[in-house]
Structures are given as C-alpha cells and as structure tokens.
Amino acid sequence: MTTPPEIRGGYVLLSRRIFEGSYAGRPPWEFMLWVWMLAEANHQQRRDGQKLGRGQLLTTLARMQDAVAYMVGSRRVAPGRPAIAKYLRRQREGNAVATAKTTRGLIITIVQYDYYQTAANYESNGEDHPKARRRVPERAHDRQEGQESKKDKNTDSAAESPDSTEFANPLLNDAEFAEAWRQWKQHRTEIRHALKPTSQQAALKKLVKMGKARAIAAIENSISNGYQGLIEPKDAPNGTNTNRKPAQTVDILPPSNFDHLADDPDFIPL
Questions:
Q1: 111 in Cβ contact with 57 (< 8 Å)
Q2: End-to-end CA separation in angstroms for the chain
Q3: Is 269 exposed, middle or buried (0-12, 13-18, 19+ CB in 10 A)?
C-alpha cells in the first residue's frame, strides 16, 4: 500500500469548542483572521529580517486585510483597516495577543501560543490519544498564576474551602456580587481559561478596589464581550474608566446580509 505524501506546511491545533468562546456570534472574518495568525506565527524561533520568537509573526494591517478578503459576486472585498485595528485592540484587552510596532510592520505575539499548540493540553476524545497526558514543561506564565492541582476536583475543592482567599474577601458576603463572581468564574471556565487560585486572589483584590458597583459592571462587561480579563465599560458607574481609552466608532462586517457589502463604507474592494 502506497504511503500518502506528507501535507506540506505543517499544522496548527484548534479546540473543537472554539465557537463557544469569544468568537461566538462574531463576524466570520474575525475567526478567519485568528486562524491565519496561528498559521503564520513561528513554531520555533527564527529570523525574519529581525529576531522573532515562537508564537510571533511580523505583518501589516494591509496584509491582514488581504488574508481575510473574499469574493462577493465579481468583487473582492475585505474588512477595513479600522475594523482590523479594533479587532486587535479587543484581542489585546483580552490578553490574547500583544503587539509592537516596528519600521517593517507590526509584531504580533500570541500570548498563549505554547498552550494552544501543545496536544497534551487538550482533552482526549478517543481519536488515538494516549490515556495519560504527558507532562508539559512549566512556563513562566504558569508559575506566576500559581501551582495548579493535578486533578480538577482538587482545585475546585481548594477554591471552595474555608481557607480559600474567597472567604477572606468582604465583597463575597454580598449576594449580588457573589452571584456576579460565580458567573465570572463560570465564564472563564467556558472559554477554557479557568481561574487558578492565585489568579482568583489577584482578581478579587482588583474588584475590591473598584467597589461593588464598578466591580459588578466590570464583570458584566467582560462576560458580554467575551474578554479573558476584567475590563470596565467606558460608561463605568463612577463616570470614569481607568482601563480603556475611548474607542473609535467603527462598523464591523455583519455576519450575514452580504447583498449590501458593496455599499458598506468599512469594506474595501482589493
């Protein structure tokens, strides 16, 4: 039997639940751009005119615009550069990417590239996966968030024990805040970034400084926008928002009704 040839270009890993996270209900081109960045990022350190590490890519807004362009009838259209810039800003706020400007373009770092592209971090689905996951070398990011229990049930029981940092937090005695905090932990679990004990402690300290009203508003805003971090809305209860700069109003491509794309000012035929 002839062995089929290897597929050129390598591969990237994607979670089966990716559409249940921050891309649920978003325009299709945003998901396409995320996959493109994963595919373009270096899988190992190399030089591309300048030194780039694993999980980094050098690009421009124009190149990203071209990467997600597609045909509508006889015209080739793509999201406008302001829409792509807004998408990158939201990804930065959610701690999904980091960006740095250079004379040659934009260096994008996918923050958790190693985590996403390590097969052992994915739950076994019966497709020839080993029953036992191999040990993954601990990264600096993991050490900063604290040691995680080998079993999820041990982590959960530790977070709910009387010695947990949650019980030392006065806001948790308030029923309204306690419910908002429960929803925030559930949201983080659903987007596959469950809070570790040290992260919970840091988040609760941040929320205590905000006060009840601002804290609940920040949680609700972060959940509704699919953020990984706690981000206050621009119309925070105290009238200020220390986390975000005023955003430009940019229309993003709607996920349907493609008959009117030719008249959309944010889409540029290439």
A1: no
A2: 46
A3: exposed
Between residues 203 and 267, which one has the greater pLDDT? Answer: 203
Q: Which domains, from first to last, does the chain contain?
A: 18-114+249-263 (1.10.10), 145-239 (no CATH)
DSSP strand pairing (51-52 vs 56-59): unpaired
**Segment 75-96, tens digit of pLDDT:** 988 999 999 999 999 999 988 9
The rounded distance, in Å, linking the Cα atoms of 43 and 54 is: 5
Beta carbons of 207 and 230 less than 8 angstroms apart = yes
* Mean pLDDT of all residues belonging to the chain: 76
Sign, CA dihedral 143-147-149-154, equals negative
Is there a contact between 244 and 205 (Cβ–Cβ < 8 Å)?
no
Picking from 36, 29, 24, the residue whose alpha carbon sits closest to that of residue 79 is: 29
Q: Which residues of 174-194 are buried (b: 16+ CB within 10 A; e: fewer)?
A: eeebeebbeebbebbeebbbb
The pTM score is: 0.46
Which of 7-16, 44-53, 75-84 is the least confident region?
44-53
The Cα 84–Cα 67 span in angstroms is 11
The Cα angle at residue 163 between residues 161 and 169, in degrees rounded to 5:
100
Q: What is d(CA 95, CA 193) in angstroms, rounded to the nearest whole number?
A: 11
Hey, what are 180's tokens?
Answer: 């908002």
Q: What is the DSSP letter of 78?
A: -
Lookup: tokens for 135:
């040990």
- pLDDT surpassing 80 at residue 149: no
Least confident of 163-167, 168-172, 227-231: 163-167
Q: What's the residue count for the chain?
A: 270
